[in-house]
Amino acid sequence: MVKDIKKIFEQPTFASKGGLKEFNDEQRAKGWESIGKEAPESTQFNVLQNDVERGVKYLYGQIRETIRSTSPNYIPDELKQTDLREAIEGITKAQTAQAIQQAKNDAAAANKNAESRLAKAANLSDISDKRQARENLGLGKLALANDYPEASLGHKGIVQLSSATDSDSETLAATPKAVKAIADTLSSGRLLNIQSFTRSGIYTPTPGTRKIRVKCWGAGGGGAGRSTHGASISGAGGGFVEGFYSLPTNILKVLVGSGGNGVDAGIDAAGGNGGASYITGLSITANGGEGGGVSGNVPKGGTVSYPATGTIIAVNGQNGMGGVNSESGGIGGASFSSTGGMPHISDIGGDNGGFPGGGGAGASFAGEPRSSGAGASGLVIIEEYS
After folding, report:
1. Residue 16 burial by Cβ neighbours in a 10 Å radius (0-12, 13-18, 19+)
2. Mean pLDDT on 199-218
3. Pfam families recorded for this chain (predicted)?
4. 147: left (phi over 0), alpha (psi -120 to 50) or beta
5. How far, rounded to the nearest angstrom, does the alpha carbon of residue 199 sit from its chain's CA centroid?
6. What angle, rounded to 10 degrees, do the helices at 2-10 and 42-70 form?
7. pLDDT higher for 285 or 346?
8. At 320, is the pLDDT very low, low, confident or very high (cuts 50, 70, 90)?
9. What ranges make up the beta strands (E) of 83-220?
């Protein structure tokens, strides 16, 4: 039908000398005025009109039959030219209705099929495992571990995970937990940094520090002075503590003790006491040694206090010492890893205590009075480990 309609309207004709001819391309482009020297007669127009009317009647007849077959409820008694648009709309509506109905039918069939599969899957009596349920639903088979071989050095396959860190298996794979544990073990104990404190301050851990090794010296005491012929008492050494501890979460304040003062030549006076060194938050204290007295007992070395866990060594400072003879002052008390100051009877005064924590020498008076030695200051060293 469509081909006939196009043929009618795509091949218009015109009247020429009582006959019908098709327009050629040149005539279509130029128009009526160039068809001939004279204008067409009315009878020629009538022939063209009749031809067009025959085509239109044929078209209407085709449309009417189409309406009859697709939309029985829409058949006008007389098909007029104004009915053409309505007829086409009627055909479109009928085709749309058919498409909608077909879609509904397809959806209903799909739902029925799905309900049948679900009902079958829900019937546990015919399902032995998950694989059968997937097959009943049309989802295909479920792959199980049994379907694949275990991996080995020579074959591909399933690899089992393990968090063990001491396994010698060649077919197990390490989990992130196991890798982290090994990495932590390998990196643990690595020296990151060393911080030394010769004066008080706040300890700021280096990033990554988990353990600290602490060495703490108390200051040494100063030796006593002498104004008359003879010798005086030296100062005592400071105490020492060393330990390996877990890094506390609280802030660590470091206080470093100052050495005790010595005494100028020709003055009868006691030497100054050494100051204590300690670290708050760790309960570590290394007390300073006592200064030498003008008379009486020798001064005591610095005592220590420390945690019960993690401490490696804790040593009190060496006591001070009396005069070596009637003219030479006493030797200063030693601290751990350092010595006390030595006395002199010639042209110089007593030596200061060795750093850190050594006690100062006592003053001497032989031909001329000599000064006593000062005690050495304390020290705190913190080694940082991962």
Report:
1. middle
2. 96
3. Gly_rich_2, Phage_fiber_2
4. alpha
5. 38
6. 160
7. 285
8. very high
9. 160-162, 172-174, 191-197, 201-203, 211-217
Q: What is the structure's pLDDT at 189? A: 82
Number of C-alpha atoms within 13 angstroms, CB side, residue 348?
A: 9
* Residue reference for tokens 């001491």: 166
Quick check: bond before 299 cis, omega within 30? no
Greatest CA separation for the chain: 168
Q: Quick one: which H or E segment has residue 364?
A: strand 364-365
Q: Which two tokens stand for residue 110?
A: 């799909």
Query: How many residues make up the chain in this entry?
Result: 386
State the pTM of this model. Answer: 0.56
Q: Which residues contact 71 (CB under 8 A, 6 or more apart)?
A: 90, 91, 93, 94
Distances (CA, A) of 53 to 17, 76, 234: 20, 20, 143
User: Mean pLDDT across the chain, nearest whole number?
Assistant: 79
Amino acid at 302: G
Is a pLDDT exceeding 50 seen at residue 16? no
Q: Identity (one letter) of the amino acid at 314?
A: A
